[in-house]
Structures are given as C-alpha cells and as structure tokens.
C-alpha cells in the first residue's frame, strides 16, 4: 500500500501543473507577443478567434478593413489537400484586400 501524498506535495504538484499550463497557454502567448510588439508598433493588435480560419479571417477583415492580410501556409498531407482543408487559398479568394501567404523554406 502506498502512503498518501502530503498536503504540501499535493499543493506543490498542483502549483507546478498550473504554472506549466500558463506557460503553454496560446492565448497568453499571443497576448504577451502583442504587448511586446505594441511597444515598437503602437497600432499593432491581436485577436484570437476559434472556428474556420478562412471564415474568421474574412469576418475580421470585414470589420477592420485592412490594407493587407498576412497568413502562413504549410503543405498539408495528400489527404488534407484531397479534402480541401488548406485554409490559405480560401483566405485569398474571400479577402477584399491583398493577401500575402508566407511559405516556410522547409515546406518547399
């Protein structure tokens, strides 16, 4: 039979898990990045959306009326291409402004 954890061990373990979760929280990472960039470029902002990327980008573009949209693209698997899951072409076709699609060198 194993001895139960002490309250101190349990609280420390929970605290470490909570810190680890905060460290990898995408919302917090986006917020921190936005704050750092805003020090250099005061008009910069961040907006986190959940849903279809092409739909969300289109809705946000309608709201903000941007001069340019920059998005990243990666080469999806054969199955993803077959199922039309690649979002960058959809964003390009739906946007009312120019779209710059970034391709990583490793994806070529």
Q: What does it look like?
A:
- The protein is mainly alpha-helical and 108 residues long.
- The chain folds into 2 domains: 1-48, no CATH class; 50-108, no CATH class.
- Helices cover 52% and strands 9% of the residues.
- It is built from 5 helices and 2 strands.
- It has a two-stranded parallel sheet with strand order 1-2.
- Helix 3 runs parallel beside helix 5 (88-94).
- The model has no long low-confidence stretch (mean pLDDT 75).
SS content category: mainly alpha
Largest sheet composition: 2 strands, parallel
Task: Give me the oligomer status.
Answer: single chain
Mean pLDDT, as a whole number? Answer: 75
Figure out the total of helices: 5
Q: How much helix is in the residues?
A: 40-55%
Distance between termini? 56 Å
Poorly predicted residue ranges: none
Outline:
This protein has 108 residues and is mainly α.
